[in-house]
Amino acid sequence: MLWNRSNNNFVLIASRIRGKVPTRMSGMCILSRAAIPANRIFSSPRHLNPSTTLFSPARQVSLTSGFSGLRVFCSAASKPSTMGDAVADLAMDAVQKRLMFEDECILVDEQDIVIGHDSKYNCHLMEKIDSENLLHRAFSVFLFNTKYELLLQQRSATKVTFPLVWTNTCCSHPLYRESELIEENYLGVRNAAQRKLLDELGIPPEELPVDQFVPLGRMLYKAPSDGKWGEHEVDYLLFIVRDVTLNPNPDEVADVKYVDREQLKELLRKADAHEDGVQLSPWFRLVVDNFLLKWWDHLEKGNLEEVADMKTIHKLK
Hints:
This protein is of the alpha+beta class. Helices cover about 25% and strands about 25% of the residues. It has seven helices and 16 strands. The chain has a six-stranded mixed beta sheet, with no helix packed on it. The two termini are about 40 Å apart.
């Protein structure tokens, strides 16, 4: 068990403990620092206070032999394939680590039918995406001001997937919770969009009534990020027109800007030319290449409903 001084987390790297941990549980679990002395390196369970909790949110198992009732929360989600992967996970930004292990994404099949849930960590591991075909529900918000300029964000440098790339206003996941599982009128996805626009960009919920988000379509895509991480999503594409107050969260967002069509085209040109280090997220590029400009036209003309198609799931590459 190792202590990561930078974020006060402990990591348990183990295979079996006295034969009581199933092989499936082998791997890494994050341990809260509560009731644990500082500057300790633990080599065996006897050093742990019985009330201490190990956690990784996906699944729960009680260990009885040698742990005096210690509870551990682990899953294959937290299994590093190498010691190098474990060290990389230790070095992960504390905020992003918390989200990776605490957030539970909604697993769906290719028809967008809910089939379960799993940790954000699991859902973004390319190894598990490829081996288990993990597919989760997501959303992408395109927020325009009343001048019909599109708000873009540059993802923060600490993001686990696609750091420092430019993308649409907000891209995230509805979570496996009652308010974000509501299928009627796509209310679950709309609720999640309102929540994340507050989390990432500081936009007050009262400035973004959920009934103002317009679902226009869904797309299914897969995109690797850096080899270890990637995306495999059924992505709901939402438009909204509002003048809003921005207070970006630096843990999530490095920069923001409004663009008109010509400015967007210039950004695309720079990304294609690898100029000024400009990169675009793969899902944003798919939307730009397949839908955005046409939908933007209809938005300005006031007939956006004519292009809405929530029956089709577009499989894009």
